[in-house]
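We treat protein structure as text, and this decision shapes the records that our systems exchange. Below, we set out a record of this kind in full and without editing:

***
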Amino acid sequence: MLRFAAVSIVLSFAAACGRAGAEAEATDAAAPGEAAAQVTTGAAESSETATAAKEVIDAEEPGGAEADAEATGAEEPGETATADAADARAARATEPGPAAARARKKLRKDFWVIGYYATYLFRRYRPEEVRYDVLTHVAVTRVYPAKDGALIAEFGRDGEAGEALAGEVVRRAHEAGTRALLVVGGGGAREALAGAATDEARPAFVAALVEFARARGFDGLDLDWEPLRKGDVEALATLAADLRAAWPEADLTAAAPHLAAGRDEADAAWERAAGPLDRVNLMTYGMAATERGGRSWHSAALYGAASEGYVSIDRSVRGYLAAGVPARRLGIGIGFFGVCYTPPVDGPRQELRRAAVAAADCSMSYADIVRRYFDPAARRWDAEARVPYLALPGPTGPHGCGFVSYEDAASIAERAAYAAERGLGGAIVWAINEGYLRWAPEGERDPLMEALGRHFRRR
């Protein structure tokens, strides 16, 4: 039996991607599965490429990049920083005007823009640097249940320092008029959540979560149950209903997986889960890794040839709508990271042959892509998928990339237009830490957040 004690909490900060301590904080880290150290205090946490696909357009917003000096928060001096800034400016683009105009006219007034603040990446994007004003909500990672009845909180730093970090994000968000969500679960937390959501354990789990979040000033919870197995969505729906009953005024959201190749409809239980939830947000990024074997594809294609098995945002949206999730409660995902394929692949829809996915969220942040891989001559625009990519002339950068799929200001504009046209209720970003250019000139350090503000928030 799980015991959730209101006065016992284990605070933990573990390294992403298998790295530990300060070393992990100082370098590229991983996706929603953050982790690390322990302390006790009080309450709870947690192909050939088609001609159209080769179409070249002018690059958009300066794409961020993280410096080796990021761990200290210092600007990288000298010629290297100057050259990097010049490359970032070269990535600035004329964005698709029609898409932006449609989004401004038709986005719902109650549209939510939720940015995940990965606390284990706090050195990349410190609380005082965050553009809270372009978000309706900031989701702070994370808490999850332990087997012994405690709640484990992973707030990026050990003990009280982690609590202080999370508290500062919440405080600054509120000062900007932005609401704060506590992320519950995350990558690798599936077994723990499944145990805590049983009929026996759930009442205590719900009480502990609500008490913990309220005590720290959070405005609600984001349920991130990864991965989902058979029957898990039903359990998530029951958990969400109990949380709604226990905390009626809370903002409640859940992250949902994108539809894999070959699937046309989401789990029917999502209709019931959507009832107590304010938003069901699709993790429509990093999708290339789930593409059918044998061909390269984009990390976050807006559209794709569904008949050929390619995954896309549109395919997932249609599948969740077909399952009964109302459009007004459905959100799409935006990734501030990309995917790298090795040569001989240099674009989407190509046979892999000897190529492989060499890097993704752990080490291919948007900032890293622009700093180490971006070349204006290599930039392409996939007119069908509505995303940019880099077709590199040979092995490039630390991972030897030939094809880099990523998102930028132009693709953000396309997503805003799509959400408006479909009457969707929101968008999420994983993770806002990954797009900040600490080394860039002032005013050019947060281009993707600026694009979010322009296209989703009219800022």
Remarks:
- DSSP finds twelve helices and 16 strands in the chain.
- Residues 10 and 40 are 5 Å apart (CA to CA).
- The first strand starts at residue 9 and ends at 11.
- The two ends are 49 Å apart (CA to CA).
